[in-house]
Amino acid sequence: MSRITSALGFLGLAVVLLFAAPAANAASPAESFVQTNIDKGLQILNGRSGSSAQRTAQFQSFLESLTDIGRIAKFTLGNARRGASDADVASFNAAFKSYAQAVYQSRLSAYTNQTLKVTGSTERAPGDIIVKTTLVDPSQSGQQPLEVDFRVLTDGARMVVVDVSIAGVWLAIEERDQFQAFLAQHNNSIPALVAHLNQLTAQLRQKIQ
Amino acid sequence: MWGRFPLLATALGLVLAGCAGVPGAPKPGDPGDPDEATNREIFSTNQVLDRMFLGRTARAYNATVPGFVRDRIHDLIVNLDLPDTFANDVLQGEPKRAAQTLSRLAVNAIIGLGGLFDPATRFDMPFHDEDFGQTLAVWGMSRDPYVVLPVLGPSSPRDTIGLLVDVGADPLNFIHFKQHLWWQAGREYMKVLDLRARNIRTLDDIERNSVDYYASMRSLYRQHRDSEVRNGKEEVEKLPDF
């Protein structure tokens, strides 16, 4: 129990990544990309101008430019996409996009004051880079910083974030594990998964408003 | 004192038996959960128990005990586990990390008023956690299969044996004073309560946002334990392709 709760404690902060403040000069293009975009995300979130709906739309647009939601959706669907109809995959992609945005938004208020420092990067393969950062919560003085990694892919000239890890837990892998388990429990029905995602998204949106 | 050695001997026997049958690397996408149906039932029961007792107590604890006091309890709990971390650092052949743990223990015991404070972190002395489950992993024992223990939650045979050894071999067990068993029981309960109380909001969020809460917990547990075994070092070559 204690081990899993500590793991969960770390995971809960994972969504901070897109909203925390960077505090170091980045060296490589991938590091600069992470730092610059986190800064941009913070500006949107902490902005006072415009309505809440406008900021939400602005943030969703920002997320779309920073991440490759389509590629993440494809990854999280895993083996189930083989043999699935194009219509099922398309509806899953749309449902996943809304779900991901709603999950990030629902947690924003708690994590905007964190600070993030880029500490380096590792190239896994050409165009596949892990940017390492540490996350500090100023309200928890004396607490150990959390290690947070961004996985950045170069898609042509464009860089995109496809996964985020906090304390060794990769979120897209965790989502893929959930979706596979759900499908195994529901006769591999992608429409059932889409319906469930839509239901969760609606609940989250209701909570945000 | 000697009455606890059979437990240790049994645990070590299980360890050796487990090491003898180390299975190969897990297949990609295999959750390593052959008894999933049973595990899901135990998980559901644990959730009910959590809602009735632990979760409720943790909320009351957060609401009634001042943050400063909760932090002192947390620091004390963490510092009391440092001897266990030190022993496992040594068993894993990590002298540098063992020295770090020993330094933290000395600083926090002396300057930190017996462990009630954590000045070592402010002095840039990094914290890390080790346990016998991680030691078994370093020695080559597989993480599979995934199991959910009644009340205790996600685990594996490796981590269950590790837990038994860690509790049985805790140096404080061998210091006998008046009502020391009650003290030990209280300490173990406070460990769980402290972690639950610190993660109430996070757990609530994950449960509310999860497509499959059981699978989410399983993935979190396994990924996090793997990371702990690697001492936080990412094996980037083993990450899946996107």
Concise account of the structure shown:
Chain A is of the alpha+beta class and about 210 residues long. Chain A has helices at about 1-10, 30-45, 50-65, 70-75, 85-105, 110, 170-185, 190-209; strands spanning about 20, 115-125, 130-135, 145-155, 160-165, 170.
Question: Would you mind describing this structure in some detail?
Answer:
The complex is a heterodimer of chains A (209) and B (242). By secondary structure, chain A is an alpha+beta fold. Chain A has helices spanning 2-12, 29-46, 52-66, 69-77, 86-106, 108-111, 171-185, 190-208; strands at residues 21-22, 115-125, 128-136, 146-155, 158-166, 169-170. In chain A, strands 1-2-3-4-5-6 form a six-stranded mixed sheet. In chain A, a hairpin with a 2-residue loop joins strand 4 and strand 5. With 242 residues, chain B is mainly α. Chain B has a two-stranded antiparallel ribbon. In chain B, a hairpin with a 3-residue loop joins strand 1 and strand 2.
Number of DSSP strand runs of chain A: 6
Treating each run of at least 4 consecutive H or I residues as one helix, how many helices of chain A?
A: 8
Q: What structural class should be given to the helix and strand makeup of chain B?
A: mainly alpha
Largest sheet of chain B: 2 strands, antiparallel
Mean pLDDT of chain A: 79
Q: What amount of the residues of chain B lies in strands? A: under 5%
Number of helices of chain B: 11
Give the C-alpha Rg of chain B.
19 Å
Order of secondary-structure elements of chain B: HHHHHHHEEHHHH
Strand composition percent of chain A:
15-25%
Biggest sheet features of chain A: 6 strands, mixed
**Apparent shape of chain A:** globular
Oligomer: heterodimer
Write down the overall geometry of chain B.
Answer: globular
What percent of the residues of chain B sit in helical stretches (DSSP H or I)? 55-70%
Based on CA atoms alone, the radius of gyration of chain A comes out at: 17 Å
The largest sheet of chain B has its strands arranged as 1-2
| Termini separation of chain A | 34 Å
Number of strands of chain B: 2
Major protein interface:
A-B, 57 and 51 residues
